[in-house]
Automatic annotation (TrEMBL):
Domain Carbohydrate kinase PfkB: 26-298
Domain of life: Bacteria
Any one GO molecular-function label of the UniProt entry: kinase activity
Keywords assigned: Kinase, Transferase
Name of the protein: Carbohydrate kinase family protein
Pfam families: PfkB
One annotated Gene Ontology cellular component of this protein: cytosol
UniProt source species: Fusibacillus kribbianus
Length: 323
């Protein structure tokens, strides 16, 4: 890829995460009024933040383009981004923006439940964006579709079209449709999406299909160039016009699955930037997703590419025998 100012510009969610472990499942209905958690951890989060933080740790020049408030929460997150090595020059900080907080309850099996608090005016608008910035980057990511506010239905397709015209690769993650926009709400962006990386459940919601091939075919027929289906403990599935394959997962006992999908996306993009083939990109992405699950937080456990490669060299793989 030609040299540009940025390797990646990440557009999307920014959140304050409060992670809590070892809370009984009946805590909200119990007569007991106090419980002791094993850990309570404050951290920055959100799909775009997680992806940007990991891409920066892998050595990429990564900028975050989103809204961030000017109050204590925003300043905490800003400091965290600087420490992670993320370029903050594109952040938009309106006076009336209030970044929202997510309380993440982590169960004994590593799975999590989110309690999202209210925010205000925290999603980007087209008026925040100078489209010429996308001429300066190799990759543009949307983290995530269905969580971009008004850009989901009026804007992200314009951004991706401009990025492609400027020679950038476009990558989109997905999120749950918590605002009930409907499964077809983001379909305008598909013709301008080089890599779409939904989770299996998100893809089932959008397509109405359950078979990975049929899911991928739905998106490919809508204009997406490459589909990467994240399947959690079952690895991933890749398909484009020329090839299709499954990648088997690593055998791990999760401590915390928060952000594993975002780590997968960041690792796949990092591999693309290195010029790797899809099979190798998927291998590294599955390794990063699995390794992230071995510590608390969405982007705190992994510190370098070498750490992921060491994990992959020694970790056991599941063999699921799919064709």
């Amino acid at each position: 890829m030609q040299n540009k100012e940025y390797d990646v510009i990440c557009i999307g969610q920014i959140v304050q995460d409060i992670l809590v472990t070892n809370i009984p499942s009946d805590a909200l209905t119990s007569e007991k009024d106090t419980f002791m958690a094993d850990e309570i951890l404050f951290a920055s989060g959100g799909d775009a933040v997680n992806e940007a933080s990991m891409l920066a740790k892998y050595g990429n020049r990564c900028a975050l383009l989103t809204r961030l408030d000017k109050k204590d929460v925003g300043d905490m997150i800003y400091g965290d981004l600087v420490r992670q090595g993320v370029d903050t020059s594109l952040l938009v900080r309106p006076d009336d923006c209030r970044t929202f907080t997510a309380i993440v309850i982590i169960g004994p099996d590593g799975n999590h439940t989110f309690f999202d608090g209210p925010g205000h005016n925290f999603t980007l608008k087209m008026s925040d964006i100078d489209l010429s910035v996308f001429e300066k980057t190799k990759v543009v990511t949307a983290g995530s579709l269905f969580a971009l506010g008004e850009l989901d239905t009026d804007g992200i397709e314009v951004i991706f079209k401009k990025a492609q015209e400027s020679g950038a690769i476009t990558v989109a993650d997905m999120n749950n449709d918590s605002d009930r926009k409907g499964p077809k709400a983001v379909e305008k962006v598909y013709p301008y999406t080089d890599y779409l990386m939904p989770s299996y459940d998100e893809a089932v919601y959008v397509t109405g299909e359950t078979d990975p091939d049929k899911i991928a075919d739905y998106f490919l027929s809508a204009g997406v160039k490459n589909v990467v289906l994240k399947m959690g403990g079952d690895g991933c599935f890749f398909k484009n016009a020329e090839k299709r394959f499954f990648t088997d997962p690593y055998r791990v006992e999760p401590v915390d699955t928060t952000g594993c999908g975002d780590n997968f996306v960041a690792a796949f993009i990092h591999s693309l930037l290195k010029g790797m083939e899809p099979e190798a990109c998927a291998e590294f992405a599955c390794g990063a997703g699995a390794l992230n699950s071995q510590g608390l937080g969405a982007h705190l456990h992994i510190q370098s590419e070498a750490q992921v490669l060491d994990f992959m060299a020694g970790a056991e793989r599941k063999t699921l025998g799919r064709e």
